[in-house]
Amino acid sequence: MTKLGLALGGGGTAGCAHLGVLLALEEAGIQIDCLAGTSSGAIVAALYGYGYSAKELIDMVPSLSKRFLDYDYQSFLLRLVNRTIKIRGFIKGQKLHDLIADKTNDAHMTDLKIPVALLSADIKEARKVIFTSHPLENESKEADVITDIPVADAVQASFSIPVVFSPVLYGGRMLVDGGVLDNCPVDAVRLLGADRVIAVDLVFADPVTSSFDSVTSILTRVVSINLAMQAKQMTRKADILLRPEVGSVGILDFSKLDKCIQCGYEYTRSRMNEIKEALAGFYTKGGSHAFLRHLNV
């Protein structure tokens, strides 16, 4: 039986565009059989795999705010009087972890209804780590695979952007945002058995007119360029590439969540005929007439 997979890339709060993409696909009757996600894409993939619909996820968005960003002020203050205090990130990430745990009822990866793979990076070993809900159909030589882990722990490890969030310590590993090594996990969703892959890439590095007059602006730009070049290589392996142009959105800019959802939705709707044609051609070869009826083509 042929399977359709969805690879959701990282992008900070711009990741809400994934919800608009999912809503447009659902409305078109396109069923996703497996998902892989990195960073913000991991949050969406995990919750969708748990069983929430796109509409249900969108309904959660208004409750999201900066109150879920637990800045580690105490460590910074202690650092002023005790230079031995170690600081590994500005934000602990525990509140976002607890939110995911609450929304999934403390589920483990193996409890997810749809096959899901979440990407993280072990900075000690310089290796990918794949948290998966179902056995992989092919062995990965480039990644360590972990299944026995709570969903919230896996998601936190995937979204822990270096310096911004504290790394996650798990099984002797020091885990950070999966985007360090794979920001749009097409390979991972293939390992879950996807025959056809739709990839959603949210990172752009188009020319800008900024003066780059601060260390932060320069560093942010360098990271964006690196992620964009990396994603360009990864997404070549996808069958359909969606790139909603969300515009300039800070990685923690909660004021633009609705805008990102709408952008993902409208962009995917604008590509829907192309998506259906690509999938219809594929499933015709595979002999899945039921899928063709589902698409109404």
Automatic annotation (TrEMBL):
Gene3D superfamilies membership: Cytosolic phospholipase A2 catalytic domain
The answer to keyword Hydrolase applying to this record is yes
Q: Which Pfam families match?
A: Patatin (PF01734)
Q: Which residues cross the membrane?
A: none
Where in the numbering of this chain does the PNPLA domain appear? Answer: 6-190
- Motif GXSXG is found at 37-41
Q: Which UniProt keywords apply?
A: Hydrolase, Lipid degradation, Lipid metabolism
Positions annotated as active site in the UniProt record: 39 (nucleophile), 177 (proton acceptor)
Q: What SUPFAM superfamilies does the entry give? A: FabD/lysophospholipase-like
Ranges spanned by the short sequence motif DGA/G, renumbered to the chain: 177-179
- Motif: GXGXXG; annotated at 10-15
Name this polypeptide is given? Patatin-like phospholipase family protein
